[in-house]
Each structure stands twice: as C-alpha cells, then as structure tokens.
Amino acid sequence: MKKIWLIAISLCLATTGAAHGKETVRIGLISPLTGDVKTFGESSKNGFLLALEEYGKTGKYTINPIIADDKNDPTEGANSALKLITQDRVVAFIGPLTSKVTIPVSEIATKYRVPMITDAATSPKVTVYNNKRKPYVFRACFIDPFQGRIAATFALKDLKVKTAAILHDVGNDYSRGLAEVFKSTFEQGKGTIIAYESYQKDDVDFSALATKLRSKKPELVFIPDYYNKAGLIARQLREKGVSAILIGTDGWDSPELTKIAGNAIMGSYFTNHYSPERKDKVAQKFIDRYRALHGAVPDALAALTYDATMILLETLDRVAKPDAESITKALSVLKGFHGVTGTISFDKNGDAVKSAVILRVEKDGPRYVTTVNP
Amino acid sequence: MTFLKGARRFLVVSALAYILVKALFLSGAVTEYIQQIVLFSLIVILASLGLNVIYGYTGQFSLGHAAFYGIGAYTSAYLTYLFAIESPLPFIPVLLCGGLVSALTGFLIGVPILRLRDDFLAIATLGFGILVKVLLDNSDRLIEVLGGSRGFVGIPRITNLELVFAVMVFLVLVTRNLIYSKYGLFWQCIKDDELASTAFGIDTTRMKSMAFTHGCFLAGVAGGLYAHLYTFLHPSNFDFLKSVDFLIIVIVGGMGSITGTIVAGLLWVGFIEGLRIALPSGMLELRWVFIPLFLIILMMVRPYGLIAQKESRLLGIDRTP
Amino acid sequence: MELLGYILQQLVNGLQLGAVYALIALGYTMVYGVLRLINFAHGDIFMFGSFVAYYLIAKWQMPLPLVFMITMAATAALGLLVEKVAYKPLRAAPRISLLITAVGVSLFLEYFLSLNALFTPNYIAFPRPFEVVDYDLSLVEITNIQLIIFSVTAASLLLLYLLVYRTRHGRAMRAVSHDHETAALMGINVDATISFTFMIGTALAGIGGILYAFAYPQINVFMGIMPGIKSFIAAVLGGIGLVHGAVLGGIVIGVSEVCVSAFVSSTLRDGVIFVILLLVLLFRPSGFFGKRREKV
User: Fold this and answer.
1) Chain A residue with Cα closest to B141
2) Which secondary-structure segment (H or E) carries A165?
3) Domain interval for residue A242
C-alpha cells in the first residue's frame, strides 16, 4: 500500500517539475583564456557570464554555457569550434575575438551551418571571403577598413602630421589589414608613409627596426597590434630615441599595456569600440554591475562580448524554435539593438554599423578624446 | 603477385577493420568529431611509419620529420586549389605529387646532411625543420593563397575513410616489401654498425638516402591526407612539437616494428585526443607535462621501444614476401 | 656620414644581441665538451634565470648585485639537478637516448613551469630596476642597458677564461673533455668535474637570462626556445667545445640577425640563422676555430 503512495507522489512531483522546467539550450563561447592576449579572454568571459546571469532572470530558456579556450591560436580555435559544434552540439556560439582565429573558425561554422557572433574580430575576411558572404557569421563590432580609416584621418586632421611609419605583424590578418587601410587612407589624404615595416609574432628584438625609424624620423608611428607587442615595441622605440606620436587600434585596450610600456606609451592614442565614460543608461548599468562584480571598469572586450551575447539571447527568445536556422534568419535582419557599445544593426554582410571612439593613454587609464561616426 | 605475397593475413585484418569502423561510422554511434580523430590517427600512423623507416630501421635520427609532413600538406592543398579538385579520384595523383615533392626535398637535403654523425644530424634536421616553418610562415609572399602565418583556409574536404584505408594498406605493403628485401637488410646493418657495413661493401650513402627519401615520401602523403581532412593548414601545425609526436610513436611502438608503430599510433592519438575530451580545459596543459616525463623514463628503461622490439604476428605484417 | 653612423648603430644593436647569445653558447659548448651531449634544455634554464630575476626584482626589490648572484646560484642548481637526475643515469647509454632525454627535459621544463600554479604561460612585463639613459657618442648612441650587457659579458668571459686556463678545476675540465678514462686514470674525479662544468655553464645562462630580460623586458615560459637554438648554432659556428668559438659564434649570429632585420626584412631573421647552420654543417662542421675532426 505504502509503495503505491510513494510512486504516486513521486510521479506527481516529477510531472509538476517538468511543467515548470525550462528547455535547455547550449551556447558556446570561444575565447583566448590563456596565451598572449589573455586579458581579452578574461574580460570577454566576464562579459559573457554577466549577460547570461541577467538573461537567466527573465529569459525563456535555461542556458547551458560551454566555454572553450582558443589560446589565440588558429589551430586551437578550429579544434575548439569543431568540438563545440559536433561534440557539444551548441546551437550557436560567441567569439572568437581575434581575427586570425576567427577566420578559420568562421569557415567551420559556415560548413556546419551554426550561427556565430564574433565579439571583437575586426577583419573583413571573417564575414566575407573571396567575395562570398558567409551566411552564418555575424559580428558585433566595426570592421578594420573603418577602423584603419579613422585612425589615418585622425592622424591627418586632428594631429596634423604629414609623415608616418607603419609597423605591423605580417602573420596576423588584423594587423595587416589595418596597416594596408591606414596606408591607403593616409596617402589619399596627401600624407607620406616613409616606412612600412613588418615583423613576426614571436619577435622580441626591435632594436634594428627602432634604429631604422630613428634615422627616418617619421612624425607618427602606427602600431596596429595587440597590447603586449605594442607595449614592447613602444618601449624599444623610445629607447632608441624615436620621438614620434604613437597611434594604435583596439588591440591596445588592456591594463597590461601601461604595465609593459610604462612611460613610453603615455600620451599615445588608439581607436576603440567604446569608452567607459560614455553617458548612456544601458552602458552605465552594465559598467556599474561589472564594477561591483569584478572590481574594475569593463574594457571594450567585456562590453562587446556582453553585447554580442545579449543580441544572441534576445534573438533566441524572439524566435519560435531555438534552432540554428531560425536564429540565423532572425540575426540577419537585426536592426537598432541598444547595446553597451552603441546602437548595433547588422548590414548585408552581418557586420555591425556603429561608431568608434579615440582614446588617449594616460596614467590612470585611457581618456576619451572624440567619437567618429560611420 | 609477388607484391601481395604473404600478405593474406594482413589484408584480411585490414578488411575486417575497415568493415568494423565503417559500420561504426554509419550507425551514428560515434560523433563526427570522433570520426575525424580516427582518420587522424591513421594519418599520423602513416607519417610515423616514415620516421620508423628513417630512424627505427636505419638509425638516422631525424628531428625535422614534421617539415616533410608539412611540405606534402601544403603542396597537395595548393594543387587541389590550382586544379579545383573536389573528389577522391582526381585527388590521388595530387596526393602522390605531395608525397613526391616531400621525397625529393628529403633526397636533396639528405645528400649533405646524412653524412653527419647522430647528434649533428639531429641538429641539422631540427634546423631544417625550423627553416621550413619560417618558409611556410612567409609563404604568402610568393603565393598569396598559401596564407603564410595567417593560415591556408578553404581546402576541400576530400579525405574519407575509404581513401585513408586504401592508401595506408597500399603503402604499408610497399614498406613491408622494402623492409624484407635486401634494402631493408642493409638498412638494419647500417643501424647496427655503419662502419662495419661499409667494410662489407654496402653503399651506405645510397642506402641511407633511400631510407630517408622513402620516409619523407610517406610523411608527404600523410600530410596531403591531413590537409584535406582538417581543411585548414597553419605553419604552427608542423613545428618541432609535431616531430616529437612522431618520434614518441616510433619509440613507444618499437624501433624496427611496423606493427608496433600502428598500435602505438592508435594508442597515442587516442590517448591525446581522448584527454582533450575527458579533461576539463584547465587541466589540458598537464598533458605536455607528463608526455616528456614519460619520454625520459622510457629512455631510461626501454630505449629501443616499448610495445614491440621486432615484428609481431598480430597484424600479419611479419610474413616475408 | 649619416650612413656610417646608421650602420655602426645597427652593429651595436647586433652586439647587444650577440653578447647574450655568446653567454648562452658558452654553456652549450662547455657541456658538449665534457659530455658530447647537446643539452637541449639549456635554453629553458636561460628562461628560468629570467623568471628568477623577475621574482627577485618585482616581489622583493633586491639590489642588482644580489639579483645576479642569487639567479646564478639558482640556475646552477637547476643545471646540477638536471644533470644528476636525467643525464647521469644514461652516461653509458647510446647517444641518441641521451639526446631524446634532453629533448624530454626541455619540454618538461617548459610545460611544467607554464602551469598556472607556477610561472603561468602568460607574457609578463619584466620590471627594469633603472631608467634607460642614452649616451651620445656623436657617431652612435649607446644606452646604459647596452653598456651593462657589454661589461657584464666581458667580465664573465674574463673570469671564465681565467677559470678554464689558469686553475686546477679548469685543467680538469679540459682533461675530461679530451678523454674520460685517461682523465680518471690521472686521478681526476670525472663525475665531479662534469657536474662542475654543468653548473658553470648554467650559471652563465642565468646571467644571459637577466641581461636579455633587461634588453627585451617581456618574459614568457617559451622564450628560451629560439635563443637556445640560435646560441647552439653559434657554438657550432665557432667550433663546438671551444670557449672562444662560442664567443665568436654568438657575436656573428647576433650581428647577422640584426643586419638581416635592418637591411633585408625582419621576417627573415630566423631563416637566415638556419641557412648559416646548414652551410656550416656542410662545409666546415668543426666550426671556425675547430680542428678538422671526423664527423661521421
């Protein structure tokens, strides 16, 4: 007799549980948690988890997040993507955030028809390759043709320089793409590029290049690379007596930059996705929440990943079925999303059309200088 | 057919293995991710077999084997791109070309290097390996699509189970026949005592060159299969660490045993990739802490091989032709 | 005049790099001399030196002379440990086994130290305990870093020379590098001499690690791989087993690397080094100062 009651009660409990339970959806994040840009990865993970936490309060589904470390290495990234898609069966994923890892990953996403939103990869090759749009790939940030152009324009118009030198990492699409765009924009604006030098990812000794620039005396040096390389280069440039103004790009956004470069980089400029001084309700709420959780002001990577994740989650709630095709279709027509980093709309290539800011490196953090609209 | 003589057991085992694996794949019991790992392990076995011929049988210590694997990979991928090949049948001559380019490079580099003593040979092959990596990193200066250090994307996925099995069975038989011919005998003589071999009238230079070239050919073919499986190439895939991988498989499997290489290759890749799935991502780095420790202990305890010191009857490769 | 100044400046840059390579190369050449072993792990001991110095300067703000002494002691200790644990048991084994073991030790050091609990795999900014000062010598400019590198390297070389050619220990080292058995017959403690040689070699690598980190203030667990290989090539270039060979080789490699970077392209700087290696092995495997010995 007792046994039947026990079974009956358990059945009731089980079914009530099922009626109130949310369907689980698996979402992945690919991020460089270790490696030469680990601060990007950490910020990105924080932004991702913060977005999930907020979604969890009101969202339609239970999200099962799966996080993979790409070590800022293209092969690791490709393996992680493969595993997330075929082994973990995610319905969509966020990231990776460096272009060199995202380009091969985007090929995999396209092949397996899984939508992905990269938070910070800025190379145009991520969404379009050989003039063919990859339909499942989207991005929450601006692209390098835009970024390189505004850097060059800022140099010509605001800093009023006529000669510049460019140092870039030849093995990195991000660095190369930016260098090329900067060069063509600068020259179109009647400036002269007096040195266009490349180096390799693992190079440590820049004494030869620094001495070369010293003798050529450019007014400005453009260094489109990640913070750890940029810091090292800046230091050696100053040591060899190069007094030019230094300009960088969103790869500079890290507290490690000033730690590595010290005084060498003070007063330099860089283009970025957003500034924490931005006066906007959504942005301020995010910044306050992030600061309370992590004790630091969120950098662009955290903000972008938060935006990318929120875009995905919001889209997830809007579509009828949580599957790859529906999500992709909804994403391709996204317009006017109010994010922390600005208002985001995806254009026909899946790229975000948004403004950029220019920041100056100061002792207590980057200072906002100006905004540039597309 | 003298080519297939004594190979009946091997062919039967291979056919059974193929049927088993194919059934497993078709049934959907394993994910595509695991299927790829299985194919990858076979490819790695092929490349390791090449190193076994060079080092295990002939005693020439090469630390740059991954370079030849890479040369074959890039060559075949480039040819596929040039001729817009999509299916396995026209792919076979391309695969062969990849192997031949690797073999030719091995032959040319062997002429000067192979006369060096073991530790200097090690450094020379290591240096060559790094030189090839530097060339691959700068490859996009010559040919844009090779991508340099940005990687070679968009390679069509042509490698499948049938192709890998067919190529492997064929090349294992070829290698077996070579090992059991007079050439193989000469190779082992050279490994045992090079000076005495010369005294016996063996043309050691020519024999060493032959072993090296054959080994590089196998690596090149394996590279071609790899490129069209992962569809993405990056110079960092072909660095010193990869050469160490092959070396470990040869040593663990046993120098001088084809069967050993096959078994070791399966175990090793299975172990490494299995760890990648099983371990949480934080602990993954521990792999490369234990692998070198394992290598060191292996050197102290069983320097000539763990699994097999000579050919075993297991797969039927021991039958002489 | 401008051009001359520019070329001289690049030469100075090359010397800066070459001096560090020379220090590391000395360790390789000395160990090869007594053991006929290429200690693959030597570059990683160099890396270890940089990290020890990092902790001493960043966490404990020690004065420089103390930093040098403690780092040298630490790297010497590590060298001794490696020798006793990994190489000594294999003294009688075939040479290839020893080589493979050396590869194993190198990989182990790199990955073990890259664990998050230890040094982590990240790039760490190395704090220089002094400001950079430029000295203008009309034709060229020299920084105080370069002066420190040159003077410390020169001092180390002088001390090493005195040790090897003017002391009993040095004589023992030279004897053991000729022939173990005969040296033992002469009453030399071969094991102790080998250990001693290891320690001297790795201590020099430790100095090299500090100087390198001063010049290029970013350290990372894998930073020793390339300098290690290049320094080994330098030792081969000058004549492996010979102290003056290592010095010459180091300088030649350093200057070549910088010149290729300055006058051709920075992306080919590593490639040139290996072309040099292959040429040396082909045409004069015994090196610049080496006697023509059988290499087959």
Assistant:
1) A170
2) strand A163-169
3) 145-272
